[in-house]
């Protein structure tokens, strides 16, 4: 069975322009701050007023984050979180008195008795958590915003899937295609210069969900390679319900990859570095391209299906 063979009418073509795709050195995983920023703005969404007041008491006056034990106080009773305590050189940020090492056990106990909604409540999470397990939950809350899957220039946009789909379409001008089979042609003149920096993104709508097909050139050790892989726009437990295949070939030879799409919770860089996709050595890619090896012309046929 040849995935996509004969079913897909139109061949999608991408012309790779290397200058446009500047792979940022920082990985998406390091972009904690946009998520934190988004999350902080959602954080004030608490139910009862009394909880709100206590919530304010638990806010560190310096970093404005919620405090966790050990919580410190100055002789006048002003509180500060342990991280900021180390930064303020033992001087109370509120009254400038010497801080010392006085724990505020009462506030720590109050915190323990609190139950707070997940900070992603307005994104759909309705769970309530004891104060000290709230943070742990929020790190893995399935309603937490996703990072933009576009891997090129720094993009700090976060949001839910429908929002990110619109964002990819409007702001990154990503090609969107309907269908679970595809034939995608990657064309690049001058494949011998470059590398480590090229990539393409195409999004497929299939089973009512979205899949990101990444294609890029980089080096494994000294060897120049091309790699194609699929990421699922959703969480990992859902991604595992799908499989996909990619194949590329020519002149009677063929390379086939079958895999499971990775969730976009895993950064583009992480998936690439784990080599979880179709990898083609440049020499083979040029052989498949035919001609005089001066132009890369790779046709990648693919299929996405749902596992039973
Ligand atoms: Zn602090
Ligand atoms: Zn003080
Ligand atoms: Zn949650
Ligand atoms: Zn983006």
Automatic annotation (TrEMBL):
<dbReference type="InterPro" id="IPR013083">
    <property type="entry name" value="Znf_RING/FYVE/PHD"/>
</dbReference>
<keyword id="KW-0862">Zinc</keyword>
<keyword id="KW-0808">Transferase</keyword>
<dbReference type="GO" id="GO:0061630">
    <property type="term" value="F:ubiquitin protein ligase activity"/>
</dbReference>
<feature type="domain" description="RING-type">
    <location>
        <begin position="60"/>
        <end position="96"/>
    </location>
</feature>
<dbReference type="InterPro" id="IPR001841">
    <property type="entry name" value="Znf_RING"/>
</dbReference>
<dbReference type="InterPro" id="IPR018121">
    <property type="entry name" value="7-in-absentia-prot_TRAF-dom"/>
</dbReference>
<dbReference type="Pfam" id="PF21362">
    <property type="entry name" value="Sina_RING"/>
</dbReference>
<dbReference type="InterPro" id="IPR008974">
    <property type="entry name" value="TRAF-like"/>
</dbReference>
<dbReference type="InterPro" id="IPR052088">
    <property type="entry name" value="E3_ubiquitin-ligase_SINA"/>
</dbReference>
<dbReference type="InterPro" id="IPR013010">
    <property type="entry name" value="Znf_SIAH"/>
</dbReference>
<comment type="pathway">
    <text>Protein modification; protein ubiquitination.</text>
</comment>
<dbReference type="Pfam" id="PF21361">
    <property type="entry name" value="Sina_ZnF"/>
</dbReference>
<dbReference type="GO" id="GO:0008270">
    <property type="term" value="F:zinc ion binding"/>
</dbReference>
<dbReference type="Pfam" id="PF03145">
    <property type="entry name" value="Sina_TRAF"/>
</dbReference>
<dbReference type="GO" id="GO:0006511">
    <property type="term" value="P:ubiquitin-dependent protein catabolic process"/>
</dbReference>
<protein>
    <recommendedName>
        <fullName>RING-type E3 ubiquitin transferase</fullName>
        <ecNumber>2.3.2.27</ecNumber>
    </recommendedName>
</protein>
<dbReference type="GO" id="GO:0016567">
    <property type="term" value="P:protein ubiquitination"/>
</dbReference>
<feature type="domain" description="SIAH-type">
    <location>
        <begin position="113"/>
        <end position="173"/>
    </location>
</feature>
<keyword id="KW-0479">Metal-binding</keyword>
<dbReference type="GO" id="GO:0005737">
    <property type="term" value="C:cytoplasm"/>
</dbReference>
<dbReference type="InterPro" id="IPR049548">
    <property type="entry name" value="Sina-like_RING"/>
</dbReference>
<comment type="similarity">
    <text>Belongs to the SINA (Seven in absentia) family.</text>
</comment>
<keyword id="KW-0833">Ubl conjugation pathway</keyword>
<keyword id="KW-0863">Zinc-finger</keyword>
């Amino acid at each position: 069975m040849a995935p996509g063979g004969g079913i897909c009418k139109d061949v999608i073509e991408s012309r790779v322009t290397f200058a446009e795709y500047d792979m940022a050195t920082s990985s998406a995983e390091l972009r904690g701050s946009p998520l934190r920023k988004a999350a902080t703005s959602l954080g004030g969404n608490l139910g009862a007023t009394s909880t709100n007041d206590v919530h304010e008491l638990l806010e560190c006056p310096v970093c404005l984050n919620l405090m966790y034990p050990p919580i410190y106080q100055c002789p006048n009773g002003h509180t500060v979180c342990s991280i900021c305590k180390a930064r303020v050189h033992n001087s109370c940020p509120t009254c400038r008195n010497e801080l010392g090492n006085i724990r505020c056990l009462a506030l720590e106990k109050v915190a323990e008795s609190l139950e707070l909604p997940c900070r992603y409540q307005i994104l759909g999470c309705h769970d309530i958590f004891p104060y000290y397990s709230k943070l742990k939950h929020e790190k893995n809350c399935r309603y937490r915003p996703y990072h933009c899957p576009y891997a090129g220039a720094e993009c700090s946009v976060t949001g839910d899937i429908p929002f990110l789909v619109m964002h990819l379409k409007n702001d990154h001008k990503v090609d969107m295609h309907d269908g679970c089979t595809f034939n995608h042609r990657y064309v690049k003149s001058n494949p011998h210069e470059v590398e480590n920096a090229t990539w393409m993104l195409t999004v497929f709508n299939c089973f009512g969900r979205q899949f990101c097909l990444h294609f890029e050139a980089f080096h494994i050790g000294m060897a120049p390679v091309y790699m194609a892989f699929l990421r699922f726009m959703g969480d990992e437990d859902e991604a595992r319900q799908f499989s996909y295949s990619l194949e590329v070939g020519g002149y009677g030879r063929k390379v086939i990859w079958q895999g499971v799409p990775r969730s976009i919770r895993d950064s583009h860089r992480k998936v690439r570095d784990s080599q979880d996709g179709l990898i083609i050595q440049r020499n083979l890619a040029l052989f498949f391209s035919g001609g005089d090896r001066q132009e890369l012309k790779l046709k990648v046929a693919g299929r996405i299906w749902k596992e039973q």
